């Protein structure tokens, strides 16, 4: 709709309502303008006003659109916007339709700004040696490559240049509030973009940032040089500086962070983060917890968890990596550098810089001041499967918003299985050379070697059996295409895999992407995302290639020599693996229902009502929702194995 100048009677009515303007000729309106909706407003600069037809309902109270008690300078304001009680001014902003802005001290753009895009974050290394530029569409995968591949200088130069170019394109002298935004009870909002559907209530100060679509920013939040991706939440006194908050992530209850990245579905409260790369599903909920200089993913920090990146020699130059699925017990401490393998539980204090990457699913304990590793101990726990089953359900990202981070929730995947095979070899080496663990800065007790090998073999067998059965279930046994042809892999040579902050991919494929970035075949961030998305979409096909390459390792036969009878044997063997691992994890779960867990129940009854009180509060084991979900998971697996066997037997005419 076209804008026009104010008519004389409209100016007169505005002035009668206490409105002023440095020049009424620079205030333009749409046809249908209602001057009665503007009371005690000071206009300056070029101002465009939309129509004011609708009422808002704010906390159950009807509120009229329009502007009341405010100074407006160089602004374009959309239709049906309510602005009231602005302490200083709203200056140099474009405001979309259906916005509610009230009780705000000041909202202004100071000049050309990129609104948090292009802010340099010194992640992992506080010295800036692994820094990257944050921007609104940053993904965990691109961040990982930027931060961790510094050995490839040409690649680093190119990918940082892409991010800088993206950020430079966002530069503008005018701020933006998109449609359906609520901003209420806030202090200062400066050089900040607010996307559609966001709600900012009670924030103290937001400077140089972007608040993404459907974000929530709450009371007493202080944020500077930041990006909040869609559906992020920063609330209740949190303070962030040079921080990226990923999609559907939450920082709350006084959490403090600087120079850190939090990707999709993180939840951090009360504690502190410094120079942290928090991959998807990183959780820290305790006031006494400090995460510093580390990379985490699918991580849960126990209360009092702490690390040191400074050895009082050359400064805070050290970093650590805790791979997917790690967790720490209360008061766990690690002196960086250290590298902890996937799905490892860390308890106690570790100052010798352990590298446990060859032995996933372990316990890393403190024993007489030294790091003691119990290999594969975490494979048989109910907590492990509980974590695995919950992560997918806790993906809070909306399906109608493009998901930035590519997350693979497959817990037993080619990367983990490759590590499991490595672990078996490592334990063999430890048996032959008891000093070998010391070269990795931890110890292993001799009696744990055999048990570790057995559990790793079970894990490998489970993955291989599950993968073969799922592949068999996807086949069309009635097709004219022979089963042997349907089983042939599309890829080859994909044995080594890596975890790109949530995306499980073959190392070789990532190498191709890096080469194409360096040689100019890929020349934009969008091009990188497209290639990574292709890997994400082709995961199952690439995983099958890994499985085929390892059939002989697990079953002593190659694919081309296997018969349908062999596949029946594999499905039956997988059923045995399911039963074994289910038994381990159920036994572990029942420890929470043991007699020692009933301490503190049945108080004031001389012990007579212990059992009744325990059942009233905890319920019966068979009614436990976590146990039930775990058992349903394994029941489905067993049904899949049975279905595959029946299809194979039918194909054989049995």
Describe this structure in words.
The protein has about 650 residues and is α/β, with parallel strands linked by helices. The longest helix has 28 residues, at about 445-475. It has 15 helices and 43 strands. Helix 7 packs across helix 15 (about 625-650). The mean pLDDT is about 95. The strands form seven sheets. It has a 24-stranded parallel sheet that branches.
Number of helices: 15
Biggest sheet architecture: 24 strands, parallel
Number-wise, the strands total: 43
Mean pLDDT level:
95
Mass-distribution shape = elongated
* Distance linking N and C termini: 75 Å
- Spans with pLDDT under 50 lasting ≥5 residues? none
What percentage of residues falls in helices of 4 or more residues? 25-40%
- What is the strand content? 25-35%
C-alpha Rg (nearest Å): 29 Å
Coarse structural class = alpha/beta
Can you give me a brief rundown of this structure?
This protein has 654 residues and is α/β, with parallel strands linked by helices.
SSE layout and pairings?
Layout: E1 3-5, H1 8-16, E2 20-21, E3 27-30, E4 38-44, E5 47-49, E6 55-58, E7 61-64, E8 66-73, E9 76-77, E10 82-86, E11 90-91, E12 93-95, E13 100-108, E14 120-121, E15 132-133, H2 140-148, H3 153-169, E16 175-177, E17 182-194, E18 199-201, E19 205-211, E20 216-217, E21 222-228, E22 233-234, E23 239-245, E24 250-252, E25 256-262, E26 267-269, E27 272-274, E28 277-278, E29 283-284, E30 290-292, E31 294-296, E32 300-301, E33 306-308, E34 320-322, E35 327-328, E36 333-335, E37 338-340, E38 345-346, E39 349-350, E40 363-367, E41 370-374, H4 382-393, H5 414-432, H6 436-439, H7 447-474, H8 483-486, E42 497-500, E43 503-506, H9 507-519, H10 525-537, H11 539-549, H12 551-555, H13 564-589, H14 610-618, H15 625-652
Parallel strand pairs: 2-4, 3-5, 4-8, 5-9, 8-10, 8-11, 9-12, 10-13, 11-13, 12-16, 13-17, 17-18, 17-19, 18-20, 19-21, 20-22, 21-23, 22-24, 23-25, 24-26, 25-27, 25-28, 26-29, 27-30, 28-31, 29-32, 31-34, 33-36, 34-37, 35-38, 36-39, 38-40
Antiparallel strand pairs: 1-3, 6-7, 14-15, 40-41, 42-43
Helix pairs in contact: 2-3, 3-9, 4-15, 5-7, 7-13, 7-15, 9-10, 13-15
Protein name: DUF4954 family protein
Pfam family, one: DUF6819
Domain DUF4954: 3-428
């Amino acid at each position: 709709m076209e804008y026009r100048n104010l008519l004389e009677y409209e100016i007169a009515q505005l002035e009668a309502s206490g409105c002023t303007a440095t020049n009424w000729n620079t205030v333009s309106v749409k046809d249908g303008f209602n001057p009665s909706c503007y009371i005690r407003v000071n206009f300056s600069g070029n101002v465009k006003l939309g129509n004011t037809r609708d009422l808002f309902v704010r906390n159950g109270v009807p509120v009229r659109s329009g502007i009341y008690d405010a100074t407006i300078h160089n602004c374009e304001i959309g239709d049906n916007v309510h602005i009231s009680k602005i302490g200083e001014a709203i200056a140099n902003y474009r405001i979309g339709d259906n916005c509610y802005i009230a009780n705000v001290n000041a909202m202004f753009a100071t000049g050309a700004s990129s609104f948090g895009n292009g802010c340099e974050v010194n992640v992992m290394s506080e010295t800036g040696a692994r820094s990257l530029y944050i921007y609104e569409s940053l993904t965990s995968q691109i961040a990982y490559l930027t931060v961790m591949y510094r050995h490839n200088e040409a690649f680093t130069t190119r990918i940082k240049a892409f991010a800088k170019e993206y950020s430079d394109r966002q530069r503008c002298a005018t701020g933006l509030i998109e449609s359906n935004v609520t901003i209420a009870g806030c202090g200062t909002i400066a050089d900040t973009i607010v996307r559609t559907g966001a709600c900012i209530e009670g924030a103290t100060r937001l400077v140089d940032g972007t608040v993404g679509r459907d974000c929530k920013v709450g009371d007493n939040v202080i944020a500077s040089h930041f990006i909040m991706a869609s559906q992020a939440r920063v609330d209740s006194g949190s303070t962030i500086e040079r921080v990226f908050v990923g999609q559907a992530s939450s920082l709350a209850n006084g959490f403090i962070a600087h120079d850190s990245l939090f990707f999709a579905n993180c939840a951090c409260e009360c504690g502190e983060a410094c120079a942290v790369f928090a991959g998807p599903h990183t959780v820290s909920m305790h006031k006494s917890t400090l995460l510093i200089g580390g990379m985490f993913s699918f991580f849960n920090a126990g209360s009092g968890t702490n690390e040191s990146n400074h050895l009082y020699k050359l400064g805070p130059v050290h970093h650590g990596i805790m791979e997917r699925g790690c967790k720490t017990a209360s008061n766990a401490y690690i002196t960086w550098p250290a590298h902890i393998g996937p799905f490892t539980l860390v308890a106690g204090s570790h100052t010798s810089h352990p590298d446990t990457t060859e032995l996933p699913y372990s316990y890393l304990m403190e024993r007489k001041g030294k790091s003691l590793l119990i290999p594969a101990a975490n494979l048989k726990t109910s907590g492990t499967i509980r974590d695995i089953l919950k992560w997918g359900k806790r993906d809070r990202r909306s399906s109608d918003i493009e998901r930035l981070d590519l997350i693979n929730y497959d817990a037993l995947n080619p990367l983990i299985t490759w590590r499991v095979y490595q672990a078996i070899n490592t334990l063999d080496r430890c048996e032959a050379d008891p000093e070998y663990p010391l070269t990795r800065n931890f110890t292993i007790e001799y009696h744990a070697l055999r048990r570790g090998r057995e559990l790793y073999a079970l894990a490998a067998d489970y993955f291989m059996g599950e993968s073969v059965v799922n592949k068999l279930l996807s086949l069309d046994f009635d097709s004219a295409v022979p089963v042997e042809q349907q089983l042939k892999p599309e890829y080859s040579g994909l044995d080594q895999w890596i975890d790109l902050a949530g995306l499980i991919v073959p190392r070789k494929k990532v190498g191709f992407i890096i080469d194409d970035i360096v040689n100019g075949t890929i020349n934009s961030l969008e091009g990188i995302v497209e290639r990574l998305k292709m890997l994400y979409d082709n995961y199952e096909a690439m995983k099958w290639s890994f499985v085929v390459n390892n059939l002989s390792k697990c079953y002593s036969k190659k694919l081309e020599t296997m018969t349908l009878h062999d596949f029946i044997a594999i499905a039956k063997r997988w059923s045995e693996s399911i039963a074994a691992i289910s038994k381990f994890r159920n036994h572990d779960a029942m420890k929470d229902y043991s007699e020692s867990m009933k301490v503190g129940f049945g108080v004031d009854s001389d012990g007579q009502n212990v059992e009744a009180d325990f059942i009233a509060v905890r319920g019966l084991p068979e009614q436990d929702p976590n146990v039930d979900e775990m058992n349903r998971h394994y029941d489905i697996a067993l049904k899949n194995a049975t279905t595959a066997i029946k299809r194979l037997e039918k194909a054989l005419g049995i």
